[in-house]
Amino acid sequence: MTKAAAVADTIESELAPLTLAVSRAWWELNVAATDENERRRVELETALSDFLSDGDRFAAIEAARGGAEGTARRRLGLLQHAFLPQQIPADLR
Fold first, then answer.
1. Which of 22, 26, 38, 70 has the most C-beta neighbours closer than 10 Å?
2. DSSP string, 9-75
3. How far is it, in rounded angstroms, from Cα 31 to Cα 64?
């Protein structure tokens, strides 16, 4: 396994549960619009936003993408597109 693939594997394995949790929270909120479901959705979306704004992870993606080829390069490109919009100061997010 290349370093680029290892970086993608690590970040994807951390991102997947957050993405799934946010999707489930949205589902629950649409099924039952309660204050608790809204609180949970906001909490999880904030956690996802915080994850995607992590500058160290973003730097690792960009560094690994530079030397990547094939599928690893594509995976890192998708991660880069997910992280890029969140690379702003926390007070603006």
1. 22
2. HHHHHHHHHHHHHHHHHHHHHHHS--HHHHHHHHHHHHHHHHHHT-HHHHHHHHHHHHT--HHHHHH
3. 41
